[in-house]
Every structure is written in C-alpha cells, then in structure tokens.
Sequence to fold (208 residues):
Amino acid sequence: MEFKEYITFFKKQIRWFWMTIFLFVLIAGVWQKDQPENFQATLLLNIGRTGVQNTPDYTFDGFYRLQADERFSDTVVRWLSSPRVVEDIYTAVGIDSKALSTRTLSSTFGAKRLSSQMIEVTYSNADEKVLQKISEATIITLNRYTDSLNKESKESNWFVVIGSDPVIRDVRVTFPFALTIGLLLGVFIGFWVALVKHYFTDNKQQNR
Fold:
C-alpha cells in the first residue's frame, strides 16, 4: 500500500481516530483527578557525637572517628529496614501496624548513606501532618536504640542521631503529565483503531 493510500483511508476513518484520542485524554483527566492524596517526605539524618574525645594518641586527622561514624551510619540504615524499629516508630506516632506484614514494614523507609555521617530517609503517607510526626518519632526512636548500645560501656563520646525538618512534596501525577500520556496513547491507539476499522469496512465492501 502506498503512502497516498494510507492518507486516503486515514481521512475516511478520521472520526474514529479523534474519538479514540478524546476518550484516552478524558480517561487520563478523570484518573488524575481521582488519584488519592500521596505525599513523600525526605528526611536528612546526621551522625554526631555527644562529646569530644581527649586522647594523647595520634588520630590520623580524625580518620578512625570517621570510619566509626561510617559503620554506625550503616547500622542506622539497617535499623530503618527492620520491622521491629519501624513498628516502634509507628507506635510512637499512633499508627496501628498490626495488620501490616513484616515485608511491608521493612520497606516503609528507603534509607541510604550519602556520606560517612549523612543518611537520607524517604517515606510516604496520605497525610502531610503524619509525615511530620513520623520524622520526629524516627529521630527519637533511633536515638533510643543508639543509647541502648552504650548502656554497658558508658562512653562519654557516644553517637547521636541528629535530624532536620523533612522536605515534603506531593508525588501524585500532575494534570499536564497525565494529559500528555493520554494524548500520546490516544494517538497511538487511534491509529490502529482507524486501521482496523478500515480493514473490516474494506472486507465488507469486497464481500458484497
């Protein structure tokens, strides 16, 4: 089939093409409006110390301290993937986590170490205020676990988890993006709808 023939049959079925585009754009718009609220928070944690260690030994410009901070940061990251720790945080906030599976609890927080002393934590919820409460409860709970490791040794220069205010953003699909995807899908599907419609119309005319 030549290109001119494609244009000819496409003009004949142009109504189906535009109807398909309109349908997909309409569905995309309705879906975007009906999205449930969903916010994501990004919390930055820093690993500090409760005091300064006075030692006559050469410390290699704080190398061993940074190495210890790095190891403890890894421990904090592991804590945030533990169902026990996550459940403690939820309990402090007042969220009932009994119906949640251990797999769901372990994937609640996305934590990664950015440097020896910095950890980025991401989590989501439908309520913006709850995200703020989770941030506060996370810092308190992590420091409680941190202190529990120092009960026996009673180190004066022990670790402390310092948190900042979380950055909270609405992560729902935006209206322009949803319409763009609907338009692109509508153009693609509309072309094939027009082609199939032409095929069956052409077969009927040949069978007469």
